[in-house]
Amino acid sequence: MKIPYNKLYLTGKEIVYIKEALESGNIAGDGVFDARVCDFLEKKLLAEYVCTTTSGSHALELAMVLAGIGPGDEVIMPSYTFPSTANAVLLKGAVPVFCEVDEKTLCMDLSSAKSCITEKTKAVMPVHYGGVCAAMDRLMDLAKERDLLVIEDAAQALGSSYKGKMLGTWGDFGCFSFHGTKNLVGGEGGAISINRKDEKLEEKAEIYRQKGTNRIQFMRGEVSQYTWVGEGSSYAPSDLLMAVLWAQLEKMDEITDKRRQLYETYQAEVGPMVESGLLRGMSRVPAHVLSNYHNFYVIFHELEERQRVQEFLKEKGISAVIHFVPLHESPMGRKLGYESHDLPLTANVGRTLLRLPLFTGMETKEVLQVTKALSEAMEA
Ligand SMILES: *Cc1c(COP(=O)(O)O)cnc(C)c1O
């Protein structure tokens, strides 16, 4: 039986809600499902204010706008992330500065981040890899001490928390994604959380995502005319997508629970291979973190071993995949002046990490099939 890396999970209500959205007459942005999604997220995250965006990437770009990031500014982020984290900064004419990750969490290494701070640093962007995070309390202390904004790339981390506080609500802004590969999907889509009470910022976000117009205020009856009032773009997702997302959010706790069971089975099976030294590491949930179990990875001692095992699994019909090419080692990172050895730990993770299949509809026996094949591969 073939096991894909990821498989779309449907709760069954998606089609019902899509139909409802179609019949509502509004399939553009800010429809009935969008309102439900925002309300749900504000309550679930205990956030001051949440609005949706067309993608996680656009949520990050909107965060840059709200944070006032611009030419001359530097923004510190781990190199081990998706290009969108850095693109958001580059698109504003600012400079992404890459730091190391902590080997245990694959999230921002705080001492490395600290050593990157200069007079030009305006913000730090922790990336909550796989649904876990760095010590957010210490990171917030550092940011406060050095007067930096914190923009969380929580694209993979909706539903996770640190010390009881939801990820995405620790910093000034939190950015989420509902891309088809995340735990809760709309197809494409994202959201931004503004984590302090600030009506000016909320208004700015609303105007920006509605093409620089006061459409939202107009819809609320606050102004009599709908017109161009500021800079903006088109970041309001179609209500068809929010209908799909709503069907998923309704089942959020069940989805997390299914993933937790699969993750724990992986941990129990793979743990001994790490303890005996066969593997260098695996996914772990750090202390004080409640995870959403976005992924499960193993770390090999060497690149060659990863390639061999990935090939072995593939022959057994199991699709295990690598993750990020560290941004500092990518062609674009090189253009920005980085070399591989600038961040040796991250470079090493980039060469030795392999993600095992984990998707909501997966069965425990499939996890066992994967771990059996993995252990055969390690002994081969
Ligand atoms: C998925 C992801 C993004 C981008 O989200 P999109 O919705 O695909 O634009 C950004 N950062 C990280 C860490 C991601 O995993």
Question: What do you see in this structure?
Answer:
The chain is α/β, with parallel strands linked by helices and 380 residues long. 41% of the residues lie in helices and 13% in strands. It contains 14 helices and 13 strands. The chain has helices at 14-24, 32-45, 56-67, 83-90, 110-115, 136-145, 199-209, 215-219, 239-249, 252-275, 303-315, 331-335, 344-352, 364-379, and strands at 49-53, 74-78, 95-99, 121-124, 149-153, 161-162, 165-166, 173-177, 190-194, 281-282, 289-290, 296-299, 353-356. A seven-stranded mixed sheet has the order 1-9-8-5-4-2-3, with helices on both faces. A three-stranded antiparallel sheet has the order 7-6-11, with no helix packed on it. A hairpin with a 2-residue loop joins strand 6 and strand 7 (165-166). The protein is globular. The model has no long low-confidence stretch (mean pLDDT 97). Pyridoxal-5'-phosphate binds at residues 55-57, 81-82, 84-85, 127, 153, 155-156, 177, 179, 190.
